[in-house]
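Below is a filled-in request sheet from our internal design queue. Each sheet records the structural input a requester submitted and the sequence that came back. We keep these sheets so that new team members can see what a complete request looks like end to end.

REQUESTER: design group, bay 2
PRIORITY: normal
MODE: inverse folding
CHAIN LENGTH: 166
BACKBONE (tokenized):
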């Protein structure tokens, strides 16, 4: 557990490293449905952000820089020089920050459903969710997140998967 970070690694250090960065209130289990063929093409790292899942609480005031440094430590501890980063939501913001801070350690960048140049209404919505998680715990944000991430049709047609995600 480098610096208290929980991670799951699959590989043999001879392929490109693909790192998956989850969103706010989630953990590395969100990546459990990756297609098996991806493991033949890449070494895979899934991990929990500080304050999420099985990782320790943030070692300092949370910031995108702190989370980008968390990735840098993982890359170094595993013995890689570069990585391809995949970020979802907050994870997308983190991988963009990593790209700015550590360009020489970046082989590729994939950003999924991540905010960029938010409106004031969008920023207020995010601030509200953060305060809700602080006051009532991360679980309190789950139902709203499910509604943002999935269509009503998907939610109704996949109740077992939605329950697992929750």
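RETURNED SEQUENCE:
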């Amino acid at each position: 557990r480098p610096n208290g970070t929980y991670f799951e690694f699959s590989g043999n250090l001879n392929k490109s490293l693909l790192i998956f960065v989850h969103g706010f209130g989630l953990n590395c289990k969100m990546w459990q449905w990756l297609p098996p063929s991806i493991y033949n093409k890449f070494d895979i790292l899934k991990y929990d952000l500080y304050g999420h899942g099985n990782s320790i609480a943030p070692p300092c005031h949370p910031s995108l820089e702190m989370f980008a440094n968390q990735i840098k430590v993982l890359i170094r501890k595993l013995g890689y020089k570069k990585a391809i980063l995949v970020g979802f939501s907050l994870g997308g913001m983190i991988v963009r920050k990593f790209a700015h801070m550590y360009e020489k350690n970046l082989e590729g960048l994939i950003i999924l459903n991540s905010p960029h140049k938010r409106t004031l209404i969008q920023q207020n919505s995010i601030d509200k969710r953060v305060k809700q998680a602080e006051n009532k715990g991360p679980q309190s944000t789950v139902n709203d997140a499910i509604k943002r991430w999935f269509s009503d049709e998907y939610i109704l047609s996949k109740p077992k998967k939605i329950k697992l995600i929750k």
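SHEET NOTES:
- Residues 49 and 70 are 8 Å apart (CA to CA).
- The first strand starts at residue 7 and ends at 10.
FILED BY: M.R.
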